[in-house]
Specification:
By secondary structure, this protein is mainly alpha-helical. It has helices spanning 2-29, 34-39, 45-54, 61-73, 87-122, 127-141, 144-158, 177-199, 201-215, 218-225, 230-259, 262-267, 273-282, 286-314. Helix 5 (87-122) packs antiparallel against helix 11 (230-259), helix 6 runs antiparallel to helix 9 and helix 11 (230-259) packs antiparallel against helix 14. The longest helix is centred in the first third of the chain and has 36 residues, at 87-122. The model has no long low-confidence stretch (mean pLDDT 78).
Length: 321
């Protein structure tokens, strides 16, 4: 297992090189330049050239790429062209909000999906199963933007249960730690629920299908013929084997919630990584865009490795090489 993990970690190196090169070339080919925005409409060509040289954008693309990668290895993602601050400082502020959103979205997804998947599989073809499948169909068909706007209208404007947006109440003093915590929880609930409802239908389908397939397996038929109680068969054998693929897919579920929260963060004015990513694209702030894209890419690669490792831990019969 240790050797496998080491080999997989070494494979990350060429994958990250390819990802970084692709991101850099795409950013370099995009139209527009944040330098002109920094210089202002009345800046002379000499002033613009001086800014380009100051930000190291005057050399060939391969020199810029090598310099950028060298800085990343040292933990320096450069300076934001728009904010004028180190990219790491800007991301550190936003990543905490995204992690909060991802954590609660994952919790709500599991709280909804696991019981629904079990109930649907237990009562296949009955009204319980049909109702849950109808819920999955609606949640997969409704766009996330429409559901987010509808939830703001109902729960924020009409019922006034949750705030319309933001991450924390700005009127709270920074010294009031407990009130800040409660305010963060209050602000994260509605976008987390929307993200969970939009993204949990796949988990429900997967768990339902696994339970139904395992219920018709030969080992279940054998156990029934031997007089093993139905409750024991269901929870000790069927559920245990059905949760193996579910456990492997858990890292991908979390990654999907992190990367899929971009539009949700923008609609709810939730100042996380996704909101920063979109706003940075709009102002052509490529150091920030590349850093966030690298973070998402690295997270995805780590999630693939984590899924394989979790699969071997929950099922010792499976070995990865």
């Amino acid at each position: 297992m240790i050797k496998t993990i080491i080999r997989r970690m070494l494979i990350l190196i060429p994958q990250m090189i390819v990802l970084s090169l692709a991101l850099f070339l795409m950013a370099d080919a995009m139209p527009g330049d944040a330098i002109w925005g920094l210089a202002g409409p009345e800046a002379s060509p000499e002033e613009v050239a001086a800014l380009i040289e100051a930000h190291g954008l005057d050399g060939p693309w391969y020199q810029q790429y090598i310099s950028w990668v060298s800085n990343i290895i040292r933990g320096d993602f450069g300076r934001s062209l728009f904010h004028g601050r180190p990219v790491v400082d800007i991301i550190n502020i936003r990543i905490r909000n995204t992690m909060w959103l991802s954590l609660f979205s994952t919790i709500f997804t599991l709280v909804i999906a696991i019981p629904f998947g079990i109930i649907a599989a237990r009562y296949v073809g009955k009204w319980q199963d049909r109702s849950i499948l109808m819920y999955c169909f609606i949640s997969s068909a409704v766009p996330a933007i429409a559901l987010a706007i509808l939830s703001i209208w109902i729960f924020a404007l009409i019922l006034n249960w949750f705030p319309m947006g933001g991450t924390v109440d700005v009127l709270i003093s920074p010294a009031e730690t407990f009130r800040i915590l409660l305010s963060r929880l209050h602000h994260v609930m509605l976008p987390s629920l929307v993200l969970a409802v939009v993204g949990n239908f796949g988990t429900i389908y997967t768990l339902r299908a696994q339970i139904v397939d395992n219920s018709a397996s030969a080992y279940v038929v054998t156990a029934k013929s031997k007089g093993v109680p139905t409750r024991t068969i269901y929870y000790k054998h069927i559920m245990r084997n059905s949760l193996i693929p579910f456990a492997q897919g858990l890292p991908f579920l979390i990654i999907g919630l992190v990367t899929g929260s971009i539009m949700i963060e923008r609609i709810f004015s939730f100042h996380g990584m996704g909101d920063l990513f979109l706003s940075s694209i709009q102002v052509r702030d490529w150091p920030v865009v590349n850093a966030i894209a690298m973070f998402y890419g690295f997270l995805t690669i780590i999630g693939i490795l984590s899924g394989d490792i979790i699969l071997t831990l929950v099922d010792p019969r499976i070995k990865i090489k």
